[in-house]
Amino acid sequence: MIMETITKKNKMYLAGKWVLRENTMAICDPQDNRLIATVPAASTADMTFAIEEAKEGFRVCSELPTHERIAILHRAADWVDEHKEAYAATIASEGSKTIKEARKEVRRCVETLRISAEEARRLNGETIAFDQMPGSENRFGYYYRFPIGIIGAITPFNDPLNLVAHKVGPAIAAGNSIIVKPATSTPLSALMLAEAFDKAGLPAKILSVVTGNAIEIGEVLVTHPDVRMISFTGGLVTGKAIMQKAGLKKMSMELGSNSPVIVLNDADINDAVESNVSGAFWAAGQNCLGVQRIYVQKDVYEAFVARFVDKTKQYRVGNKFSEETDMGPMINEREAKRVETWVQEAVDRGGKLLCGGKRNGAFYEPTVMVDVPKDCRIVKEEVFGPVVTIFSVVDLEEAIRESNSVDFGLQAGIFSRDIDKVFHAVRKLDVGGVMVNDSSDYRIDAMPFGGVKGSGIGREGVKFALQEMTEPKVVCFRMSR
């Protein structure tokens, strides 16, 4: 079946209507730079209009009965599921993911929307024992949660469908309106999600997907006083700039990471290698949870490194649409050149390349390094590319210390059969999540997701995003007797 989005590829979804603009932006496949679509380059007036319309959209959504919001979310999920191959093809075409990776993202999007529908019915408050305070014996009350208003969502290129769903699904479930500014390079998936909600019968003005230059239209969204929350997924530098500009509004910031994994002597080495190779090179390493640093206890270090390199060399890089491909290109050649520069800096300072380290256009080979100085950018900052560094450590304490040594703390992994050591690591690792006998890359869409330090503030994951997108209102009755 040919999706209607193919005929609407030049349109954006503005307050419930598909609109064209004279100014457009080209969307190209990073694999070969072929033009796959154009989208409107929205103006500041377009974004201002979306915000004005979203005021009415908020009123409409907040007054929708819960069962209607649930039904809309389920119908949108059904639409995505029924057209899943077209969604996967779009994700793979405009971004870095292979077709196999893209199909998994579509499945997760369907799950995210269905969880949103289920959590809508569980958005509850609780009664409060006001008589716990002397003099309040004749008072009774409770609190409930209410939607906050217009939410501005700014989404990245690396999960162009599911990360949009993680903002849109909870926002609608809670009764808010939402304006999405998708990544400039990957807006088509977000527009296709808007199509799903359009087909699902979402009333006009609740949702807008505004495409364009982030510098031009993003600032309007971030700074407008009627936008009550900004939900941003992206880089640390941009996140800090948004917080400085936004003014008095709620913030949810997922700002990436530099994820560590600890492998202890008693770990299943083959399992740890298998898990961490996937965790390091999924989506060409452009993954906020991607494995970047691995700390291996010295007794198993050499065996782990040898097996890890061997497994990495088997990783198949090539055409994203081939069922045999494990990894495609990075999002553009500029980013691949940046990774190339960081790796060369580490080599120049004594780091050793065990495999990879070569670039061909936007393709960068899966790369494994050892003996890298700890103050190199490839160790201290978020590489957001297919590069992993491996270090030998004496014991768990050293591994924890080194894991915590960077200004990020999203998720970490630990491989061990010793439950005491595992629980010690859980307590001491300064991160938002610890994956035991899994790489840092593991996630389901129902869990709380977010980090500490430079990895951001707030939590995503549908139930937890609903909490962020609502506020508690207290009600207290003073009884006459």
TrEMBL record:
Catalytic activity: (2S)-3-sulfolactaldehyde + NAD(+) + H2O = (2S)-3-sulfolactate + NADH + 2 H(+)
SUPFAM superfamilies for this protein: ALDH-like (SSF53720)
Protein name (database record): 3-sulfolactaldehyde dehydrogenase
Known role: Part of the sulfo-TAL (or sulfo-SFT) pathway, a D-sulfoquinovose degradation pathway that produces sulfolactate (SL). Catalyzes the oxidation of 3-sulfolactaldehyde (SLA) to sulfolactate (SL).
Family statement drawn from the similarity comment of this UniProt entry: Belongs to the aldehyde dehydrogenase family.
Keywords, in A-Z order: Oxidoreductase
Pfam short name (any one): Aldedh
Enzyme Commission number: 1.2.1.97
GO molecular function: lactaldehyde dehydrogenase (NAD+) activity
InterPro entries: Ald_DH/histidinol_DH, Ald_DH_C, Ald_DH_N, Aldehyde_DH_dom, ALDH-related_metabolic_enz
Domain Aldehyde dehydrogenase: from-to ranges: 19-475
